[in-house]
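Retry 2 of 3 after timeout on previous attempt. Resubmitting structure tokens to design endpoint.
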């Protein structure tokens, strides 16, 4: 016989598919029938425990919640660990309705669990009616809806196959990670909650967009920032100052230049205390080349460091026909050259 349920126990709760039904397992191994999943009894001590105390519910089998929806109560913090399995209800509104805090995880490596919409189609997998929902892993299918009332939805990971419906302007959606189905989100810039000044959505190569931190800009001219030094250099005008924003690696330019490759006159590159890691080789090397006489060029306030790849000979070459090629407060570290 199953051990009795003792109120107040804390720990991770697990749903198992062991006969005669599902169980919640407390930290000390006590098994409590969770008959609402797979079974017929609409209420159990285990369900009451989860709703009253929050905690972690870990699936050990695909779960069908036999009720209108599973409720996360006001002020309760509840974690659903899918552990490679699926969760849905038999209702016609939502599989999970949130009034407290819901966190969705998936602890099983290599097998992605999912929250599915209820048996009735076009319903919500998750409906945030109060409080907050956090999706950090797992797959969400169907629909995620926020209620009109200043609720929160944070997506930090997982695979989103669901449409996202924001009901009210006060609702806050924040997306900082995860994979988003391109059949649902047609454009990379159409994913709700992404701050595209800090994050970007890139093609993951498998029919999904991957949300990730955008690369930090390398250089700046005036108020305009550039992701690469080459872009900044290409857009510099006469007398411009290119200010470097972080350490960076790469070649300046490569090969011989024609008159079409001339760069601006009176150009200043302010390394701004950062290091330019030079990665050229003997055949393809760092090169400052100017074919207009009477120009000046200034590189200042930072470091140039040779970073050979270990397999090819590296040459650092500065070619110029400029009247002035000036290095001011620039540390040169070519110690790694062979």
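Retry 2 succeeded. Sequence:
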């Amino acid at each position: 016989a199953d051990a009795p349920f003792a109120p107040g126990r804390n720990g991770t709760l697990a749903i198992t598919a062991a006969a005669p039904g599902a169980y919640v397992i407390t930290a000390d191994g006590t098994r409590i029938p969770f008959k609402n999943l797979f079974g017929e009894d609409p209420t159990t001590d285990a369900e009451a425990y989860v709703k009253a105390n929050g905690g972690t519910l870990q699936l050990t089998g695909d779960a069908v919640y036999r009720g209108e929806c599973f409720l996360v109560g006001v002020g309760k913090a509840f974690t659903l660990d899918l552990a490679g399995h699926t969760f849905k209800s038999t209702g016609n509104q939502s599989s999970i309705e949130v009034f407290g805090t819901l966190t969705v995880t998936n602890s099983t490596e290599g097998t992605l669990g999912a929250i599915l919409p209820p048996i009735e189609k076009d319903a919500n997998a998750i409906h945030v009616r109060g409080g907050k929902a956090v999706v950090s892993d797992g797959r969400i299918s169907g629909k995620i809806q926020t209620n009109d009332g200043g609720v929160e939805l944070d997506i930090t990971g997982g695979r989103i196959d669901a449409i996202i419906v924001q009901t009210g302007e006060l609702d806050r959606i924040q997306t900082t990670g995860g994979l988003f189905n391109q059949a649902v989100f047609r454009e990379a810039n159409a994913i709700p909650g992404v701050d595209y000044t800090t994050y970007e959505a890139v093609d993951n190569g498998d029919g999904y967009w991957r949300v990730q931190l955008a690369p930090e800009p390398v250089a700046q001219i005036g108020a305009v920032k550039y992701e690469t030094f080459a872009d900044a250099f290409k857009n510099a005008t006469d007398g411009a100052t290119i200010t470097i924003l972080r350490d960076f690696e790469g070649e300046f330019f490569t090969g011989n230049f024609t008159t079409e490759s001339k760069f601006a006159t009176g150009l200043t590159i302010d390394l701004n205390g950062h290091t330019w890691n030079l990665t050229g080789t003997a055949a393809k090397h760092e090169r400052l080349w100017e074919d207009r006489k009477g120009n000046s060029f200034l590189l200042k306030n930072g470091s140039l460091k040779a970073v050979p790849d270990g397999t090819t000979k590296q040459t650092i070459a500065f070619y110029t026909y400029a009247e002035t090629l000036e290095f001011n407060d620039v540390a040169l570290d070519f110690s790694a050259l062979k």
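Attempt log closed. The mean pLDDT is 78.
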